Recover the amino acids of this structure.
């Protein structure tokens, strides 16, 4: 049965096909923190150390079923990742690369937990913590599981590239993002990173 995905207000809905190969990850980097501030929801997105919790999987496993018009996209810089969110209620959806052939998405806890919190049950405990040196406060969380996550992610990306499944990503159409990314200026980005 597909795992239900939806924004906080229920306008954007999607289904996630689970595989058992997802990576449950917490990232403490400044960019992820800046995105939470961009959405003006740092208190609901970030944990006490400024961590963002995501489930990484192949983007071809996700399918929007409603509200695609409210799926918006931003980049913290011209070369940044594509950060997807529901613009109806500012719920973060996921992060993808700008190149549609690198087909993975890090789906946010917030978009996966609206129908009851089954994250650990479905995707296992957090297996990777990264960028702990950028965490807020002390002690800094220790990074772990990064190499294993990279190997898993790499093989997922390669498989999708070879079998052409990357074309099924709901975030791209003919290699172009389905929503025009809003690209922040340096000043706009810096203003967000100073907010914590
Ligand atoms: Zn919404
Ligand atoms: Zn990050």
């Amino acid at each position: 049965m597909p795992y239900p995905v939806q924004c906080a207000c229920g306008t954007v809905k999607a289904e996630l096909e689970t595989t058992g190969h997802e990576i449950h990850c917490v990232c403490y980097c400044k960019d992820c923190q800046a995105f939470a501030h961009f959405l003006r929801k740092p208190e609901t997105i970030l944990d006490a150390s400024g961590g963002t919790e995501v489930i990484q999987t192949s983007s071809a496993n996700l399918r929007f079923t409603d509200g695609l018009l409210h799926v918006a996209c931003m980049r913290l810089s011209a070369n940044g990742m594509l950060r997807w969110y529901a613009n109806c209620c500012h719920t973060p959806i996921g992060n993808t690369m700008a190149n549609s052939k690198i087909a993975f998405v890090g789906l946010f806890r917030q978009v996966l937990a609206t129908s009851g919190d089954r994250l650990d049950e479905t995707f296992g405990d957090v297996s990777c913590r990264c960028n702990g040196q950028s965490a807020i406060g002390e002690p800094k969380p220790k990074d772990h599981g990064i190499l294993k996550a990279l190997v898993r992610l790499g093989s997922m990306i390669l498989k999708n590239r070879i079998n052409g499944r990357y074309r099924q990503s709901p975030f791209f159409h003919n290699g172009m993002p389905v929503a025009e990314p809003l690209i922040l200026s340096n000043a706009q980005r810096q203003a967000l990173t100073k907010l914590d």
